Amino acid sequence: MTAQSSVLSAKRTVLGALVLSACASCAAAKPALRVCADPNNLPFSNERREGFENRLAAMLAEDIGARVEYTWWAQRRGFVRNTLREGTCDLIMGVPSGFEMARTSQPYYRSTYVFVSREDRALDVRSFDDPRLRTLKVGVQMIGDDFANSPPAHALSARGMVSNVVGYSVLDDYSKPNPPAHVMAAVASGEVDTAIVWGPLAGYFARREPVPLKLSPVSPQVDLPSLPFVFDISMGVRRGDTERLQTVNDFITRRRADIDKVLDEFGVPRLDVVSHQARSR
Length: 281
Prior knowledge:
The protein is an alpha/beta fold.
């Protein structure tokens, strides 16, 4: 290599370093959108940022000229306390509207629990009063240690259906990918005849099982006297964080069509949102 080419090479190296340094400075100059999320919970979020909540967080950050910065924490008991309330992050991308532990935005989608079964079984169960449920093996998502902690489990128990019910904890083996999805695999394999699953999870993983699965929304939407199977979903900020709440609400209003496209891509079953008013409590 000649002296001249050595000088040119050195200049290119220095120039490249300056460009990279400038790009890094630009990124660092952007304010951080600090998001609380689960690193192993598709279709909602994961550490690879493959979930629809990851996508929406990136969309929101771009919209406001920010960069996304995550606090990762398993979304189970203590999630809000150890993230949002500790101040390590400022936004949870998906919480029930009116969630007591945060201040919630206007809803950006409304979904429902669904009955899931193999298409080749042609069951098409839609109601907890369907008499076939008493003879079928029924899978149900469980949040804690008893059947009273999720709406479908409670509805089955209220009708005396316990011995034929198989519980699948959403807090399953966290060393494996996407623990809450195991109930869908149980339907596909025939381990259970049907299962009642939260819609976004069911819609996403139904497309990924080796056999076609049918999803049927639970009907009616409320089990009397007051057990709902349909929920509005919002974004959550700390109480008193009025400015951030307004930013989130503005984003949802302006980008609703784009949000819907993302939800469609992930197979999220949706119903019309009842109210577009922000929850203020």
